[in-house]
Amino acid sequence: YTLHPTPYTLHPTPYTLDLTPQLEAEIVYACRHEYAETAVDVLARRTRLSFLDTKATLECLPRVLELMAQEKKWSKKRVRAEERSAKEFLETMKVDSDLITSTKYQK
User: Fold this and answer.
1) pLDDT of 3-31, one tens digit each?
2) In the 8-state DSSP scheme, what is residue 94?
3) How many other C-beta atoms are found inside a 10 Å radius of the C-beta of residue 23?
4) What angle do CA 104, 90, 58 make, to 5 degrees?
5) 0.85 exceeded by pTM
6) Rg of the chain's alpha carbons, rounded to an integer?
7) DSSP strands (E only) in the chain
8) Taking the CB of the first residue and of the last residue of the chain, which one, N or C, has fewer CB atoms within 10 A?
């Protein structure tokens, strides 16, 4: 696995959250060594990102799905299912529903 610079800079947030190579590496590590099998698992339990900032989590969801799809060899159908599941989870965390519907996985 090679880490690449990413364009994901998440603003405005009360924190400066970037999907940095370190965070990308945490996602890959969780997939390879911690039995992380779902995007919700990575976002909520492994990185806890969804508890820090749900809007920022939604913004970086496409990159998380991309990394996990690569590691887990997911089909496009599985990626779409993971995206739906993650968005449903984030809705329970009171993210604005307009933001949920406007963000789609791009790959």
Assistant:
1) 444 444 444 444 444 567 888 899 999 99
2) T
3) 19
4) 40
5) no
6) 13
7) 9-10, 17-18
8) C
Structure tokens at 12: 């405005």
Q: In whole angstroms, what is the distance from residue 22 CA to residue 78 CA? A: 25
The CA-atom distances, in angstroms, between 2 and each of 5, 21, 41 are: 10, 10, 23
How far lies 31's CA from each of 9, 60, 72, in Å? 23, 17, 7
Structure tokens at 31: 């997939």
Cα gap 33→86, rounded to integer Å: 21
Report whether 71 contacts 28 (CB < 8 A).
yes
Tokens of 33: 């060594």
Task: Indicate the residue type of 59.
Answer: E
C-beta pairs of 43-46 under 8 Å, 24+ apart in sequence: 43/86, 43/89, 44/89
Bridge-based pairing of strands 17-18 and 9-10 is: antiparallel
